[in-house]
Specification:
Elements: E1 24-26, E2 29-31, H1 34-57, H2 66-97, H3 101-120, H4 129-150, H5 161-190, H6 192-210, H7 225-231, H8 234-264, H9 268-292, H10 298-317, H11 322-351, H12 357-381, H13 386-413, H14 421-440, E3 477-478, E4 494-495
Helix pairs in contact: 1-4, 1-5, 1-6, 2-4, 2-12, 3-4, 3-6, 4-12, 5-6, 5-9, 5-11, 8-10, 8-11, 8-12, 8-13, 9-11, 10-11, 10-13
């Protein structure tokens, strides 16, 4: 049966919450679901970040010489990395055990960014703009970690977890486009001060909506031995390393393109275009990945993401127009970061069924944010031509993809990776197991949440002797299945019991 969440208590019957984000019916009428409240907050947070990015394009950040800017940006990037490398591992577990701890961080991020944006209005032409801008960066990434921890608390079951993350990514991409419509004219008419004022208002609104979210406890107890063992499985470690490279590439490309636009003397239009391309890529990644999971394994999606980024880097490096190539690279990297993160979340959900979702996702998100900072640091301290940077990006993605593929092959060869059901029981057995899961998914428990009772090993048909080798004829142990966002099980991973 699917594990219950804090949200389950607010759903009196299945009809009151037909889909994720549907209003909840109470005696006082319909109220917004916990996911809807978090989604509203997230939309305003992204809107404020977009307005800040547009404002920085017309500020001193792009007006001073690149040589004068590099050492300042490098210093503040190091200061940005400190909270994630030192503070987060110590403070994060305490926040998870505190009721409303992650909510406090979310509120602090919204309030803090509203105040900092207001202060930046008077410092647009001052060197004080740099520390204020990177203070915003720290608070933005702190919010991203807290959001990763909060999402599992606003869904009814693990089956809705990836759907929730995909919807939040889609919402962020759409809102980013919408905010650029007023932000660009404001930049031309009133300068960056007007966009910073808009950002401050948006963060104030985000604070109001964040206050409407429910304080929850992410994890009442510290991680136990079983959770730690699951999260250190080789498959999760390999996927996490690949995803960290993707996030590092995002940070690398951000500052590589920013300095190139500055050196080329291009207008803010190109910066906005690259920003829009990145948002469009995130939208496409969130839209396509749930559908790809119906036919592809998560590992294949992650490898495909790295391969796509590698090929795009090669093509962009040899393109005639550097600005057009950079825009195309931003789109594909945005798609890869979005789709790859959803695939990674699914791998963790599948291979670590007993791990606390909020705690584990926050821990991995902290590492990915640190990887972003490390990637951004490289083009800041080392002036890199755009063509060489795109080639380096391609090389990093290709090396990560090859390493991940080789690691998976090694695990499969040594019996340390789940073997797809199709390879174990044949086509007929796989279809039977899928139908069994679909029937089980229609049941509901007393609390109103959909019951996800798992088929036992005895529910599976006997292996087809023609498709099973002598080494895999031992009894198998079924691990909890992963259901795609559409509700149909695509694959039931199995793994052999330990030898002896």
């Amino acid at each position: 049966m699917s594990p219950t969440r804090p949200y389950d208590e607010a759903v009196p019957s299945p009809l009151d919450a037909v889909s994720l984000g549907a209003p909840v019916k109470t005696e006082q009428g319909f109220i917004a679901s916990p996911f809807t409240r978090l989604a509203r907050t997230h939309a305003l947070m992204v809107a404020g970040d977009t307005a800040v990015a547009v404002a920085l394009a017309g500020s001193l950040f792009f007006d001073i010489t690149p040589d004068a800017a590099r050492w300042r940006i490098a210093l503040y990037l190091l200061l940005t990395a400190a909270p994630f490398a030192v503070v987060a591992p110590m403070v994060g577990p305490a926040l998870d055990r505190m009721k409303g701890g992650r909510r406090i961080v979310m509120l602090g991020s919204a309030i803090g960014r509203a105040v900092v944006c207001a202060l930046m209005i008077r410092e647009v032409d001052s060197l004080l703009l740099f520390p204020l801008a990177f203070l915003l960066l720290v608070m933005s990434k702190s919010y991203a970690v807290s959001k990763a921890a909060l999402v599992p608390t606003v869904v009814r079951s693990d089956d809705e977890l990836l759907e929730a993350n995909a919807k939040l990514t889609l919402i962020g991409a759409i809102v980013g486009f919408l905010v650029m419509v007023p932000a660009l004219p404001l930049l031309q008419l009133g300068g960056p001060e007007w966009d910073l004022a808009l950002a401050s208002i948006l963060f104030v609104a985000a604070t109001v909506f964040a206050l409407q979210t429910k304080p929850t406890t992410i994890a009442e107890l510290p991680a136990g031995p079983q959770e730690k063992a699951e999260l250190h499985r080789a498959g999760i470690v390999l996927a996490g390393s690949a995803m960290a490279v993707v996030r590092g590439i995002v940070g690398f490309l951000t500052f590589l393109v920013a300095f190139y636009i500055r050196n080329a003397g291009s207008s803010e239009f190109w910066f906005a275009l690259v920003l829009a391309a990145s948002g469009l890529g995130a939208f496409l990644g969130a839209f396509l990945t749930p559908r790809l999971r119906r036919v592809w394994a998560e590992e294949r999606i992650l490898i495909s993401v790295l391969l796509l980024v590698m090929l795009t880097g090669l093509v962009a490096a040899n393109a005639g127009s550097r600005l057009t190539a950079a825009t195309a690279a931003a789109l594909v990297v945005g798609l890869g970061a979005s789709g790859g993160k959803l695939a990674f979340d699914s791998i963790v959900q599948r291979d670590a069924p007993d791990a606390n979702r909020g705690r584990s996702f926050a821990r991995f998100e902290t590492r990915f944010q640190l990887a972003w900072v490390v990637g951004a640091f490289i083009p800041v301290i080392v002036p890199i031509p755009i063509q060489a940077g795109l080639l380096g990006l391609s090389l990093a993605a290709g090396a990560a993809g090859a390493s991940y593929f080789a690691g998976l092959r090694y695990l499969r060869a040594h019996g340390k990776a789940p073997v797809p059901l199709l390879e174990r029981v044949g086509v007929k057995g796989a279809v039977t197991a899928r139908l069994t899961r679909r029937k089980a998914g229609t049941k509901t428990d007393a609390g109103g949440a959909a019951s996800a009772e798992l088929p036992t090993p005895t529910d599976l048909p006997p292996p087809d002797p023609s498709s099973v080798s002598a080494e895999t004829t031992a009894p198998v142990r079924v691990t909890p299945p992963v259901v795609p966002l559409g509700g149909e099980q695509s694959q039931l991973p199995l793994e052999l019991p330990p030898p002896g």
